[in-house]
Write a structure and sequence with these properties.
The chain is of the alpha+beta class. The protein is built from nine helices and 14 strands. The protein is elongated and about 95 Å long. It starts with 10 loop residues before the first helix and ends in a 5-residue tail after the last strand. About 30% of the residues are buried.
Length: about 350
């Protein structure tokens, strides 16, 4: 039996934000991504394709359609669906031809200031909300819709507002390049570099230098502004104690809390691996038992030669070609790091990635 159909003539439906997805995306996938961002998300009404039992009466048996599911995202917002989309509905709403399912976001309309002109608009939100960007609950849920659309190959139809027509956001899945490995294992810089070089032989460590040639000549003997009245002997003793403290720190530095590695890709930009211990984790990692007190993050990111293109909703062909060459390298580094330290992998949207899919 079919899911409930989406009626493009229903103003209550078309007047809200819509998440549209390919027909083969299951409701369980949407639920999993909701839990990744909203840990308390749950179905208030389970989606089903089995209609209620038909009832009789003076007009005989009636053909019924099942009610849409209701997924509670937050105290104020729910996601209703899935509805099926036919060709007439996708055409009338201006949706991609690949759209087969629709979810309706029921959330408060909360708008802030208009976007700054000339800034980056990677997700297209400035284009879709030119009079005022979403804030609070609407911002959280709309950004989640865009991230889900990017992850699952869908789109977001932004509701018409204040006399403006609906806007369509079709985020490019290929733009989600960066990956992060979360683990409880810390690799020292040399060990991490050996792992990274399995995928990127040109990688090198990017560490702060600890070399110090000592204070400039005359330090402690010449008065500086604010110390003119200080006794010369007291000034010299103060500087001597400061020098002793500096030398002690340099000879026995505190434990390292973060470091990085870089690989130059020439015209394709650069790949960076940033390693750091973190206590503030994304929602998807907060329920992992071994990460209860924090985790080590190995962030593998691509930095293009032109950073402005990185924040463009529709970057040019040069950027896309460079990205297509850099993405397999990011995946290879992430795969090598995960093999070495285990743990969980997340994408730029904060959703879990199965290491087997890398």
């Amino acid at each position: 039996m079919a899911l409930p159909p989406f009626d493009p003539a229903d103003s209550d439906l078309v007047g809200r934000h819509l998440l549209v997805l390919p027909a083969d995306v299951g409701a369980d996938e949407v639920e999993t991504l909701a839990l990744s961002r909203f840990p308390r998300a749950s179905w208030e009404v389970e989606p089903t394709s089995i209609p209620p039992r038909p009832t009789g009466g003076a007009r005989g048996l009636r053909t019924l359609t099942p009610p849409p599911g209701v997924l509670r995202l937050s105290r104020l917002s729910t996601l209703v669906g899935p509805y099926t989309l036919d060709r007439a509905a996708t055409t009338s709403l201006g949706l991609p031809a690949s759209a087969g399912l629709a979810y309706v976001l029921r959330a408060p309309v909360e708008r802030g200031e208009a976007p700054w002109p000339g800034g980056g608009d990677r997700d297209g939100l400035a284009r879709a909300f030119p009079d005022g960007l979403p804030v609070r609950d609407e911002e959280r849920t709309v950004r989640w819709l865009v991230d889900v659309a990017r992850r699952l190959g869908g789109a977001v139809r932004v509701a018409p507002h204040a006399g403006r027509d609906a806007a369509l956001l079709v985020p490019d899945p290929a733009a989600a390049v960066d990956l992060t490995v979360w683990t409880d294992i810390w690799l020292e810089p040399d060990a991490a570099l050996a792992v990274v070089r399995k995928a990127l032989p040109r990688a090198y460590l990017n560490l702060p230098t600890m070399e110090w040639a000592g204070p400039p000549s005359g330090t402690g003997t010449q008065a500086v502004p604010g110390t003119e009245r200080m006794d010369p002997a007291e000034r010299a003793a103060l500087h001597e104690r400061a020098d002793q403290h500096d030398m002690a720190v340099l000879s026995d530095p505190p434990p390292m809390t973060g470091y990085g590695a870089l690989a130059d890709l020439d015209i394709d930009g650069m790949i960076a691996v940033e390693v750091a211990g973190e206590t503030e984790l994304p929602p998807v990692m907060q329920g992992v038992p071994w990460a209860a007190e924090g985790a080590v993050a190995y962030r593998v990111t691509w930095e293009p030669a032109d950073l402005t293109e990185l924040e463009s909703e529709r970057p040019g062909p040069v950027h896309r070609v460079a990205r297509s060459r850099a993405t397999p390298l990011v995946v290879a580094v992430t795969r090598a790091v995960h093999r070495a330290v285990g743990g969980e992998v997340t994408d730029p949207m904060g959703f879990v990635v199965d290491p087997a899919d890398l």
